[in-house]
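fold-stage: in
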Amino acid sequence: MRSRARYLVGRDPQVAEIRQVLSDAREGRGGVVFLVGEAGIGKSRLAAEAVGIAFDSGMSVLRGRSSTTGPTVPFRPLTEALMSLFRSGRPMDDLPLGPYRPALGRLIPDWSSEAQDSSSMIILGEAVLRLLIATAPPEGQLLLLEDLHDADPETLAVVEYLVDNLEYTPVVLLATIRSEPCDALDMADSARRRGTGAVLELAPLTRPEVGAVIAAQLGTEPDGVPAAALERLWDDSAGSPFLVEELLQSMISGGALVQGEDGWRVVGDLRSDVSTALARGILRRIDRLGPQGLTLLSAAAVIGRRFPLTVLQRMTGVDDRALLSHLHAGVAAQLVVPDEPAPDWYAFRHSLTAEALLTQLTPARRAAMAGHAADAVQALYPDLAGDWCPLTAELRSQSGDLDEAGRLFAEAGLRALAAGAIGSAITLLGRAERMLAGSTDPARRAEVLEALLPALAEAGRFNEAFGFAENLHALGSLNAVRLAALHTRLAKVAHTAGRWEDGNRQIDRARALMRAEPDERSSAPIDVTAAYLALDTPGQDRTQLAEKLARNALQAAERHGLPTVVCQAWELLATLARERDFDEATALLESALSTAEKHRLPVQRMYALTRIGGNNWLTEGDTGPLLAARGEALRLGSATIVYTIDGILILDSVLRGRFAEAERSAAECLTVVQRLRLAPATRYVLMAGATLAAHHGDRPAMDRALSAFADWDGAGSQEEPLTLGLARAFCALMEEDRPGAVAQLRAVRELEDANPSTYYLSGRYGVGLLLDVLSGEVGRGPYEEVAATAPGRMRWNRQFVLFAGAVLLGREGRREEAAAMAAEALRLAESYPTALYLGLRLIAEPAHADGWGDPVTWLRRAEHHFHQSGVSQVANACRAALRRLGAPVHQRRSGSSAIPDELRALGVTVREYEVFQLLPERLGNKEIADRLYISPRTVEKHVAALGTKTGHPSRAALCEFAASVLG
């Protein structure tokens, strides 16, 4: 159908830009345009002009609009737009969509099948992109999505994918968005910043442009508009084209503005309340349609701003001829418009029109009409597929039938959850729960809560989820199985939030309820949730208990056909299997992934992908699968997984030496996870932040991060060993305090023996092994045992294992093999500069002693790196080692910027300041000399100079002064 605005005023620059984008698309250079402005500013009119331009140039047009009736429905505007392809009569079965066609079954009912992919938003986005390209004629294709501010999160996820990938296609995406805070507007702004989309902001009309609109409406020239009318409309409309037209119609219908032989003139009072004038004007125009027209449009307003003729006719009983006659009259009166491209759908030109109609209905009349509308929908579409279900739920709610409304909202929410639309599911299930709060059937409300609680947890909305725990007593008439299921859901929420004590209390309540009537089917979800909590609960046997519970749950779930529990159990068992064999862990995760895909469990699929990505990162150092899983979690709306992966990516940046990037990302992420009270993610990010400071040798910053870590229940957590092995031990090594590092790594062993961890980067299988080999505490046998373990083969650990192996080979006189193994270690460590240069610093002197490798070159490289990084103590140690090896050493005098201003003013030198920094520890001259790799005599001279320069000649006074300056 051809569509075009009747007239367009003040939008020439925007029209020109749209013409250019459409022209580019015809040359194979697609684009994205967002029309942004307040309600009534003319977005739809400009979009209609774009449609007319596209039609004139031979382009095909697909149109969809987000729902403004009731809650959002996943993918509604996309489905509406794409369905028009199937009404065109062109063959669709032979399109070159390849493996992406099944994914489109989520949007196109004709292509729906049992085998369709029901989870990946990335795949769905690619599928839509390929369909748009495949169906575009040579002249190109325009996809128009209106009212994107009302779109569901899932639609926005697909649209965002299109925005990033339309550049080299013959497709233009044009979307309208209100200029009010919303996710769609954020997406448009992001696209503008990235250069992947244009944002055309529609400003209010100027005074001359308002005059031009009035003239067009009155059928006269601008100078024929009465000055008083222009002044009033300019003042009252604030430049909104819609308000100009409505207020003008109100003036005319009220008799204040009339047309005479000499043109239009004012004959009455033009002043009135804008909202009242609008309502009166709209109702006056409706009155002219007669009583049946008023009834018909009132019924349409009850349905919503958009309404289908089939439902309207069914609820009013009007015959075809009368229905179309009144609708055409409504179109002529500028009250309603055909809702292209949906056949047999109309829409009110503005939401104010529908609101004005509703004001003249009594509450009882409106409720009755809503009930008739719901009856009509259910009679015509008994399956309530797609958005018929939430529409009917909204109508039942308006009619006062809260139980039925709750049931329908619950059904719509469960459908959204099954499709992986977590955001929409929470909205719909939340409505259902509120509707059923006063229901006499608590089982139905319990069913809603069983789905709503985990969805809230995935979205990071823990306070809302825990709020329901206080009201479970109101469901006391439930049977034990149903009530136990709710306590289990709350336990899972607690696990996700990192609140293992609360989770264990909920598990105890669930088990107490099941004690009287044991039921294996109902106990399986309890066992698997208890297994996850066991792994978080401090205790020496936590991994064994978690594995036992998970295996019990798996066996019961397989017997009773509980695929969600099967996936959860396999995922946990895979985590535990990493210590034995990564191949075994990956096989278990592949089984979980396959089960999730087979049973259309998008959340469990996302978890499996995340754990597979985590395994890839641990074994290969590859973040690609993790990033893909993060994108999937983002599109599903799982805040918990997004920020869990962010924590891993931050740590990866630290280990790769991308310190500025890591610091920036950690600050951003920490703000969010602390606000959401995501304890596990918060602890992980704080641990990564402490590691960042440690690798800089910045002990105060590390201590601050670890203090915050302790405040988030860090003691006994799985992240605690990492704070010792990745942070404290490395900080000691950056201070050349090798005994201190060894002590921290001993503490790691004690901690992991008392509270086994499934995190294996704490140094026990890496840098700790290297230090033990260097000290002579570990020989060939124990080394081979560690090197053969799965954690010993992890990417971060493996480089240290190889360094240690090279040292052992050198001691055994196998010099060539030692050099070869060191070369392999250097190759592996290339991506991890701190590990690389620390390894070189640690193995250089043993290599020199045993006559293998290139220790002088290694020390020079390490010295240069740590000097550039500002880690002076390691750089000094490298220089001292070079001297011991008889190699020439280039003196460096940088570092004066680190000296406090008050000391620099006293003439304190860089070397004197290095001594000054150690004085608060009350070390003797020999201890300081050992730390700085200088002679005790030199230390004595520096201390004497410091006493003179600072005015504190006694050593005790100088130490006190140093402590006060350094804080």
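fold-stage: in (second)
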Amino acid sequence: MNYFSFYKGGKALYCLFFIGFILSFSSSSARNSNRSFSFIFQQHQVQGVITDGNAPLPGVTISVRGRADVNSITDYTGHYSISAGINDTLAVSFIGFKTKLIPVAGRVKVDIDLQYDTTTLQEVRVNAGYYSVKESERTGSIARITSKDIENQPVTNVLATMQGRMAGVSITQTTGVPGGGFDIKIRGQNSLRSGANSPLYIIDGVPYASDPIGSGITNLTFPTLSSPLNSINPNFIESIEVLKDADATSIYGSRGSNGVVLITTKKGKVGKTKFTLTSSTGGGTVTKFMDLMSTSQYLAMRKQAFKNDGLTEYSPWDYDVNGTWDQNRYTDWQKELLGRTAQITDLQGTLSGGSENTQFMLSGSYHSQSTVFPGTFMYKKGGSQFNLNHASDNRKFRLNFSAGVTLQNNDQPSFDFSYDARSLAPNAPRLYNPDGSLNWENSTWTNPLGNLNTEFESKTNDLTAGTAVSYEIIPELIVKANLGYTNLNNSETRIVPSTIYDPAYEVSSERSAIFLNDVKRDSWIAEPQINWKKELGTSTIDILAGATFQSQRSTRLQQSGTGFTSNSLIYDLAAAKVTKVLLSDETLYKYQAFFARVNYKYKQCYILNLTARRDGSSRFGPGKQFANFGAAGLAWLFSNESFFMQNKWLSFGKIRTSYGTTGNDQIGDYQFLDTYSNTGILYNGIPGLAPSRLFNADFGWETNKKLEAALELGFFGDRIFTTVAWYQNRSSNQLAGVPLPGSTGFTSYQANLDAVVQNSGLEFTLRTVNFKGHGFTWTTNLNLTFAENKLLKFPGLESSAYNQQYRIGEPLNIKLLYSFKGVDPQTGLYTFEDLNGDGAVTFPEDRQVAVNLNPQYYGGLQNQFSYKGITLDFLFQFIKQKNRTYPMGTAGMMANQQQRKTDSWSAPGDNADYQMFSTGYDFPAVMATYSYNESTASVTDASFIRLKNISISYDLPLDLKQTQCRVILQGQNLLTFTKYVDGDPEFTSYGFLPPLKILTAGIQLTF
């Protein structure tokens, strides 16, 4: 079967859609023209300004009652103009306000004041994937942010926009280097495998693969492999919905086990064509440096270390203390290597508008960012997004098309300078000679800037396109098809030229090397659907059925080349003397499913939502490829009961609950097969093959059973709205590698472990309208999550290879550590508990104290103030957690240390926090330092409260009807309050650049 035939046909299909759109648009325009002509002598222009009683309201819809073809939208100054008859009635509507009917009564100027209506917030439709649902009627758990939240943040990654804004969604930034990634967990870690906890991403109905595209041979700057999520441009996003419980995710079956992130891009709106141009510039700096020793403190430590070790003379290589280096010199290496300001530039333009039948939006953006490292490295990203919506005159036929293209070019040093910045001796030599060349100080040190020549470059091209076509056969029956295509090409190179070495060593280009990683990924999806909705007296039934057909092909090629005649040829792999193909593979993933949803409402009070899906995945063997998943959700809107109707203080009340199952097939392709790989070794001129994986016919699905109960309450017209939700998820039949003895020739084989992981927690959200009137509005949003992760069951854990990684009844993210007792006043060494009482502290017997590194609770507090044309919005993110301190090695060796270690033991009888200094000659001291870093002493409070985001905007009062000018000031990570002692508290792996503190200023013009 030719799996690419659909894609080829898909191009033709898109063309057909466009032709149909052009024809329908032309015909509808002609009809509208004729119709308008018949009224031209009876109409006159009605103009006016629409306000909330104080400030003008842009985007308000004005229509003539009884005439669907005549409408208008207010501009940014609240002005409108519409053609109406002298006896017509204007219908004025705007979300968040009560709809108003205004008789024209022969007037040519009609100013209108709208009244705020908080209850309309319940009518907001939330994207639930295959369907949408009113906020008040949803039975599942869905968190949501909109473009109003996203546009306030000077960030480039879609996950950064969600930090601190959603209950149950924990996001950690892994590095501050441009193009770096984020770690996301929706309601905890479900799988034993750290790489199998990513959610499913859907962009305008098209699945977007989030599997890493980087490689360990090229990508050394980041703590994790490059993620394709950087290709998603936040500026193009209208809303992000996160589906969390079984009711919301079960319809996605095996792909929804870890939650679903639905991304909806911006669409055009009915009205005059308008052009918006936004430009901003700013800078980013490291949020917080470590407190390290000064030169005098450092030299005192070094001299005491020699004394403690009984050494009376300095060695020739002890340059820092033997007089070779200037002992009065001080360099703050953190400021020198990490202290620059990253320059940030953003430019975006949007063209949008449309008629009642057809709306469009075309956007383009460009972003560039330098680094805080030395050098001229740059991250560049540009892209465009096009959206087209069309409906026939009778509204039976609808077409939605979206396409986005993103190009990235990331040029960075293939070396993070954070380690050198923290460990270099403060009296180390200067970086440059007077002539501007690198200073190697007579070969007495390794100049860290030598690593500027080892570069990492990544180029990524990404295309995502999708079309949704629907037709209403009869008033209650709609057929629909979602079609999508994605294509990604990523090329990475890392060079290691001979120029990174001291010239005195005379290392030639024969030692130079290049490493390459190329990834190509394309996929298509087709989802035919049918939807029937019928009102039966006081009941409403809504039935959806559909199917999914998806295919994804991925190729990877990793190569290396060494030995060049000149470094100028290092990017030419053909110029290398020795070339190797390190990895070359191609995988095909095929996925098929059938799904259904039945929603039943009775008297607008009782709601039953049933979802089911049968999944088929090529990642499992015969007999295990298919699995069934489903869920049931119930909701009782008790505020709609007759006995609550007269209640004046309770405006909304709902109890909902859900239970169901989802699955997980995030194990990679061909894991159940016995496969072979090329060895790269020739035998009689023929390359050999070696077995790489064992066959497992019983390899099957992970299963996640989810249970939730929630209470939603609105008070005083929903001016106070709160939600409390409890959840419990249990993931079983864990997919993992089972270790094998080395005698088998394999290290492990893939299988299902009879282990059960539980995630449970309590989520709380609160939205309040604190004040509204006289042109001033103040709103507050709070989200708070208490989460607990626990390994409930793991038969045979004690005898497995995981026995020093997990513990029954403890979270998955634990560290087994020694129990720290303190510093022995007599020996000056760290001491630890001898748990088994055998007279010696040994591994693993005594490294058994489990420390939980998961957050205890986390959340965010957002406030927004607006007064006429001024808006202030800020978000505080907070996390209660523990984390590891930064390990600096044995104090006293030729490396700087934290300033707090000046309080170290120096003589018998001393009571000190830290052990004796040593140059490394005292073996017990070195081993004690190692044990200290693997003990409870290395765990500290890493909780923090951070001013995550602040945005101030001001609409300039221009005397221009069709032009608006807005001045914008935005900041990210501006303030951090924490007790963490070793720099910034947000990280997943220490030793990498922390998140940056960013401040930008911009201007937005709308014509």
